[in-house]
Structure formats: C-alpha cells, structure tokens
Amino acid sequence: MKVIWSILCQSSAVDRDTNSLSLFNIIEEVTFPAQPPQIQPEQPLPERIMLANFELVTLWMRSNLEVPERGRGRLRIVLPEGQEVTFQEFEVDLTQYLRFRVRFRLPGFPADGPGVYWFKVDGKTDTSEWTEMFELPIRVVLQPQNSD
Fold it and tell me: In order of start, what are the domains of the chain with their CATH numbers?
C-alpha cells in the first residue's frame, strides 16, 4: 500500500451519489497578524496554542493493483523544534477497492510560534514495520504588528 497524496484544507465534502471529494480552502501556509504568547518548549502540549480547525485528507492505493491489501496508518506532526505528536492511528482497508481515502478532522495542531510543522503519514502491514509514506510541510508565519 502507498500514499498517493495528502492535502491540508479547512474542510472537505464527499458527494453521496458520485463519491467525489471536494476540498475547500487548501492550506499551504498559515499567517498570524500578531505574536502568540511565549510558550516554553518544556510546557505540556495541551497547554500550547492550538491553531484553527483543519482537515488532512489522504489518498491510499494498493501497491499492486491486482493484490488486495490491508494495513494500518497513522498521522504524526513534527513541531519545528523536533518534538513529535501522534494524532491518530487507523485501519487502511484495500481489500475491496483499489483506493482508500482518510479524512482527519483536526481540532488544531500545537503551535508555539513560527516555523515549519511537518504532517507525516506512516503505514505498516502485518509483515512490515512503520514506514513514513508521505510528509507535508506547513509553514507558520507571524506578520509583524504595525506600531502607530
């Protein structure tokens, strides 16, 4: 099994009749107009700032189109200072269909300032260990405040 793509967006919708996916407000970078409160790196993650609600949508596909597969996936976020947060593990079932979509609804992700936040999607099967299959960088930028 492999990951074809992962996209961070504000929201997504699946059409019930056609199973078509629509992505709304795709996010490549997040800019904040003001400096967030200073957070110490050793402060527990739940006490850090949680940036707005997002969805990470990921498309999986069979490694060999003729061979059904099943495995596990997980989403990790690596903060600019290197600390890692595992958000969720899930089943990837490619036994009946060639492709499998996963929509992660994230209440936010822990941010404590500017930098690149890496969304990493990992996968494994019964016969393999966890392997990083896709990474998506999201840059957080702080816009300087105007001083009048």
Answer: 2-142 (2.60.40.3880)
